[in-house]
Amino acid sequence: MTVKANYDVIILGTGPAGLQAAIHAARKKVSVLVLGKETKSSLFHAHVENFCCLFNVSGEDMLAVGRQQAANFGADMLEEDVLGVASADSLFRVTTESGRALDCKSLIVATGTARNKLGVAGEKDLLGKGVSYCVECDANFYKGEDVAVIGGASAAVSGALTLLDYAATVHLVCGELEVADTLKAQLAQSAVIVHEKAKVKEIVGQTGVEGVVLEDGSKLAVSGVFIELGAKGVMELATHLGVRLDDEMKYVDTNKKMETNIPGVYAAGDICGPPWQMAKAVGEGCVAGLNAAIYAKKVRKS
Ligand SMILES: Cc1cc2nc3c(=O)[nH]c(=O)nc-3n(C[C@H](O)[C@H](O)[C@H](O)COP(=O)(O)OP(=O)(O)OC[C@H]3O[C@@H](n4cnc5c(N)ncnc54)[C@H](O)[C@@H]3O)c2cc1C
After folding, report:
1. Which of 42, 104, 127, 237 to mutate to test the pocket of ligand 1 (most atoms within 8 A of CB)?
2. Architecture of domain 6-115+231-301 in CATH?
């Protein structure tokens, strides 16, 4: 495919937010380029059963269909990472890893989040085979089984409480509980087995998770491990442009049109904060795509 030097809209990210934005922008008859690698989308390793109107679909298959749809409506695709973004004279210039410089009138940042990792043996190898970073997404796969949640903040504690509705036994492994008193009381009254001042040494298993080994040498026999240590937005590119973040400096701040504080720059998906779910990502992508196209058309006329 020939990639042009100028586009009306450039989208950073080829996950569900970026692809939905591309579909809606391209259908507004503006030129669109989507940048990024599909294998780096959070969705790539997911198995989705909570997205309306679709059941039990692999994330990899969904991304392939999304890319095809966006291309069918005229969006160009370039599987390259972006290294820099700058603005000048109502245009944005994007520099890619191969050294291309691409200009656009309007920019959508949909670069997702990076889940905080535990950093122990077994975590990477058993991802998608019992290791999960999302209770909301995967709880239903552990009906009647024994599971462990790792983390001591509110996401981990509410995740453990949610899992009680699915799993037979729920362990919560944390250094310290860092939650409000009401949540602490809820946890104390629940059936969750709390291992405070404990640290995971290793996640073990051959073809799937078989257990978690703690630093004191004890082992919890579980078939699911939910790592709930939070996430951070992949927002280096956005902050280079001066895009404003939320009060906790974790996510891109947008209004209901998915506009950032910088005219012509929009954001969508996980980078805008939780819930980190595909349904939210595509909704925001749709809004960002439509508004970025309208903005680009206005710049064209001016
Ligand atoms: C294991 C797992 C299971 C999940 N299961 C579910 C589920 O069952 N249901 C559900 O709703 N959600 C699920 N999720 C969450 C869902 O995948 C995310 O909410 C969704 O993918 C967010 O979409 P996004 O487009 O914002 O970001 P992503 O899909 O993460 O896409 C980000 C994109 O930005 C690109 N990018 C990043 N940096 C750059 C750069 N410098 N230059 C160019 N491109 C860049 C990446 O390559 C990627 O293409 C799951 C997530 C994980 C990790």
Report:
1. 42
2. 3-Layer(bba) Sandwich (3.50)
How many A from CA of 221 to the centre of ligand 1? 30
Determine the distance separating the centroid of ligand 1 and the alpha carbon of 193, expressed in angstroms: 31
The tens-digit pLDDT sequence of the chain (302 residues) is 789 999 999 999 999 999 999 999 999 999 999 999 999 999 998 889 999 999 889 999 999 999 999 999 999 999 999 999 999 888 999 999 999 999 999 999 999 998 889 999 999 999 989 999 999 889 999 999 999 999 999 889 999 999 999 999 999 999 999 998 999 999 999 999 999 999 999 999 999 999 999 999 999 999 999 999 988 777 788 888 899 998 888 899 999 999 999 999 999 999 999 999 999 999 999 999 999 999 999 998 88
How far apart CA 30 and CA 36 sit, in angstroms, is 20
Ligand 1 neighbourhood includes 130 CB (under 6 angstroms):
no
Verify whether ligand 1 is closer than 6 Å to residue 277 (CB atom): yes
Give residue limits of the domains in the chain. Answer: 6-115+231-301, 131-227
Can 6-115+231-301 and 131-227 be said to share one CATH topology?
Answer: yes
Q: Domain 131-227 classified CATH 3.50.50.60?
A: yes
Task: Answer yes or no: are the C-beta atoms of 139 and 47 closer than 8 Å.
Answer: no
Whether pTM exceeds 0.85: yes
